[in-house]
Each structure stands twice: as structure tokens, then as C-alpha cells.
Amino acid sequence: MEETISLQDLFKTLKKRALLIIAAMILAVTIAGIISYFFLTPIYQTSTQILVNQQKAPAQQQDYNSQDIQTNLQLINTYNVIIKSPAILSKVIQKLDLDTTPAALTGNITVESAENSQVVSITVQDPEAFRAVDIANTTAEVFQQEIKKLMSVDNVNVLSPAVLTENPAPVKPDPMLNMAIGAVIGLMLGVGIAFLLEYLDTTIKNEQDIEDILQLPIIGLISPIPEGTKVSTANMIQSRRKRV
Prior knowledge:
By secondary structure, this protein is of the alpha+beta class. 55% of the residues lie in helices and 11% in strands. The protein has a domain at 41-56 and 65-160: 2-Layer Sandwich (Alpha-Beta Plaits), CATH 3.30.70. It has a four-stranded antiparallel beta sheet with strand order 2-3-1-4.
């Protein structure tokens, strides 16, 4: 016989194991909070902006047209790669005396630009807020100097340097978000464990379980005797004799 589970049975299982589900959710939230506040290293983020714009002499300003802008936009994709290249980052490491490698530093730097924009943002993440600011500003400065040698152009200017705020806030970890994720995971685990325990519980609880196991219809039930009622076997036999 194929076993089917009704929606009512599901709700009964959830209600029966409600304490287990709540405990699993609370435990997951607690673990996520402890890890977020005490074990994960705070990461700070800052960014600097550079402007890609060909500098021209005053007498040539009238010749600056949309074609020059388009040329600068085409160069930005190349610049995005050069900024994160060892040619730039090795000099940044040397200037700041960082204990890292260009390959490792690349993972902490993000270079991006808006579509059809001549502004390039250099975003740096680091466990120390002041060091993130230094890396961002130094990277922009080194790139501005080295691009003249690498491509024989002078069209990069620092538009907005990174600034160290008074009370910088880390961008990650986000304890509240981690705890919310922990609550969802704990809830899912709790529900899963509840249904697993219910599935592994093979004890007979009611007449429906007997019918499912024996695959025979139930033709009668013995009603429970109230707890306060006491009938002796002798009294039952004597009562039957009188009836006879």
C-alpha cells in the first residue's frame, strides 16, 4: 500500500517538534553571531576615483571633441587591467612596505567604471582602514606616473582621493545578515530533523497505524475505561450469572 502524508499530518509533526525546531534556529543564530563578532576579521573598504582625460594646451582646447572622449573611453578597459598589473602593484607594495605580493594584493583591489564614463573607481578592501586608504591613494598615484612611461600618454588625473573617516565601519562581516541567514538555515535544519525523527519513529500510536501495518480494515474498537472506574472480575462474573 502506498503511504501518503496529508497536510494535516505535516502540521501535526511541526507542532509536535516545535521546541526542536525553535532550538535549532536559536542555536544557528547564536553560532552565526559568535562567529561574526569574535572570529571573523573586520574588513574595511575605501575607494579613490581617477579621471581619464587627455590634457591639451590652451591653444588646442577648441580641437577637443567627442572623438577624443571616445578614444579615452576605449583606453579605460586597458587601464583597468594595467592598474591591477604587477607593474603597478609591485611599486605600491614597495612604497608602502607591505608584507604581501602583487598577486595577493590584486584580490583586495577592484577597478570599475560606469558605462560611457571617463571616471574609474579604485576600490580597496583591507583589515586596517588606514591601510586601505593608503593602498587606494598610492595605487592611483603610481598609475598616474607609470602610465606616462607605459603608453606615452598623460591623460590620467586623480579626481577624488580616498579619505580616512573618524569612525570607519567595516563592510564585512555583517553580523545581522549572518544571523538572519543562520536563522533560515537553523529553521530548515530543524524542520528536516523533525520530519526525519518522525519518519524513523516506528511505534504504533493509533488505529490508523495498525491498519497501515497489517493492511486489514478495523472492524471494532475497545473504548477506554475512565480512570476513576474500578470493576473487579468477580463482580463481572456475578453480574453475568444473575442475568442468566
